[in-house]
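Researcher: Dear colleague, please comment on this protein.
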Amino acid sequence: MGPDLQGSLEHILKQTAGKYCVGDEVSMADIYLVPQVYTAERFKVDMSQFPTIRRLNQTLIEIDAFKATHPSRQPDTPDDLRA
């Protein structure tokens, strides 16, 4: 997810987010957000300009199901990227 797409997503999420991406219940939007943020961070995208995305991601990665399925915990994740 490049900076332009993140900027667009940040704008949308400012309008739709509650505790999660769309209100206060986990949705498919949340499931898609975590790996996108992981990839952006892996490629050194400056996430400081996307406070809503950062807040949502931080909330989501504290949920047990998200911890267990985080991209850094997948069986095919290279050793140097594993959690």
